Amino acid sequence: MTLAHRRKMPSAGGQSNWGYQKNSMSKEINNKVTDWTRAHAEGRIGRRQWLKLMLTCGLSLPAIARLLESATASDTKGLRIYMVPKFTGFIFFELAKAGGEQAVKELGATLTYVGTTTADVEGQVQVLQNLIPQKPDGIVTAALDINAPVPALKQARSRGAVVVTFDADVAEPGRNLFVNMAPFEIQAKAMLECALANAPDGGKAIWVAPTPTVANFISQKKALDDQIASNPKYKSIQFVDTLYANDDPDKSYSLASSAMQAYPDLKFFISGSGISNPAINKAIMDTKRSGQMFSTGFALPSTMKTYLDDGTCKQFALWSPYKFGYMATYLAILLKAGTVQNQQSTEVDVPTIGKRTIEAHSTINLNSMLFFTKEHPDFDNAVPANL
Amino acid sequence: MNLRSICRNHRWELILVALTFVAGAWASLLSPFYLSLDQILYSLQQALAVAGLLSAGLMTVVLVGEIDISVPATLAMGTILLARLSEMSVPLWIALPLVVGLGVVAGLINGLLVVGFGLPSLAVTLGTMAAYRALALLIGGQEGHANFDDSYLALGSALIAGVLPVSLILLLVIFATFVWLMHQTVFGRLVYMVGSNQVAMRYAGVRVAWVKVATFAIAGALAGLGAAVYVGQFGSARADNASEMLLFVVAAVVLGGIDIFGGRGQVVGVLLALLLLGTLKNGMGLANFPGPVQTLIIGALLVASVAIPRFARLRFHLRSADREPSPRSSTG
Fold first, then answer.
1. Which of A177, A335, B45, B79 could form a disulfide with A162 if both were Cys (CB 3.0 to 4.6 A apart)?
2. By a Cβ cutoff of 8 Å, what residues of chain B touch chain A?
3. How crowded is the C-beta side of A298, counted as CA atoms within 13 Å?
4. pLDDT confidence of residue A51
């Protein structure tokens, strides 16, 4: 909210009842007023002290009242944010929704959560298209396709919506900001660390992705390959095949079962899919290959408890979907309110997450990877990864 | 034809029209944003332009007593082919016939497998569905394609006078053609007759096999055309395009009053069913109904559309059991 005041000051200064003071007020005093007001808003100085400072600057009471009003009336009040997940009913996005709801609660905005029941690209585009006439202030979405939602999102943006993507991005013209879980390099390291935590000597690995075209899975695989090629620590892991399991438990189970027979000396299934990992762990358990082969990468802790408990999986990783939804929604609101400028190297302090910087191509990283093990199986006791 | 006979012969279609108006009224109550011409047209285009073309194709196949569930996969092959052609800077007037031709070939393969070996069309097209998707994946590679030449996008995205989507006009033209083809031509008669009793038609010297193959080819051609609309609408092509569209397409055909066993139903019914489904989706979408509720309502409507006519017919038969036999009315 701090920048809002800086933005508001000149406009307030243009208004008639303290316009005369603007002329008499030197630039220096003006800057001081801004700084103090900011300090007051951030809670660094109390209201009484701030009032005293204002009075010593020679501001009249009506002028101070006006300042006070702009300081307390938040720009974020009543903003209408819509969250469109990849599909509804999946715990990951339900947690993201809970995070989004927390963000709108803190900032006085509203959140509407709407999406299709299946991973349906055309359906998601229709959901987004149905938002356009409602003139949303912000759309927070995890896209099923890089390109298909772009025309609809462009229209929404041209009508004033701020579009923030999280988890899965769209092409740049379709959005203002992309909240990435972590740089792909960090994600790749997290997955490889988990692989080595399961089997320290490395071995043959199969990559499991939903379809060949989901953007972040393509980037994850590339980063994995880069890490294995460049980092001697991970040299012992070699990818021998890729499976496309469509984020579907049955398909993951059956594809993995066949792959286990095709590659008897296989050591790892590595996947960024939170649906594939538990299913493959079940396949490993069912075929009594626990300890011989491991399925790791990213997964939701609630789905992996059984396998952590019996040692089928020793470690896997994830970021917090709750914080993911929180950060994306929080930033959508602040961008719409104008309190955060969408520029490279702008630093934003996101509550409970920390200071994050907007990088090239309007990307910002959530960057809080968590490791889950038998002793630390839940979001609230997981081990923050240091990568 | 007087008003009364229209009412009697088109009872189902009139019910669909009434339901569409009810759905429209409901939508405008649900959301203040519904009643706006450009909103309605744009939304219908999003929901129907591609699915409508596939529905017209599937309808033809269902009328002849078969089914083709590979049409969405054929469409995906088409979008990938268009992407490749656009990358090679092939002009649209060559690319469009090529992609429709690809659809025809895909349809012919389905049709020939069905009639040539006497295989059930559900099994054949289930197989070719997977095969066509795999082909799309092989040609299209792992990435989505988005760098289309602007001319390729016109069919799916251009607006006449800023509001009227070209793709909706195309859909109406296609359906007008089908009303003529199915209800006014010899071919149309043959389709209905083969659908209601193919054994009798075979004895009557009708080349049943060729009628069937032709309907599969038509479905393929429309899937090819659908591909051209698809790339315009979404600006992208991917091997898994339209993978979730089959349910909607089958829903439109069944809700449109086409007998799933062939031989009965009106072309215009399918168009009306599309409008009804599109209006419902639009209204519920604008009112931000949660996804599961939307799916539930459409699903319930589908079951009702199959069940209600059956119950109505049953009652009709019970009541008129001792009177004259009921007239068969729906072959147009």
1. A335
2. 31, 33, 36, 39, 42-43, 46-47, 50, 137, 141-144, 146, 157, 233-236, 238-245, 281-282, 285-286, 288-292, 294-295
3. 25
4. 76
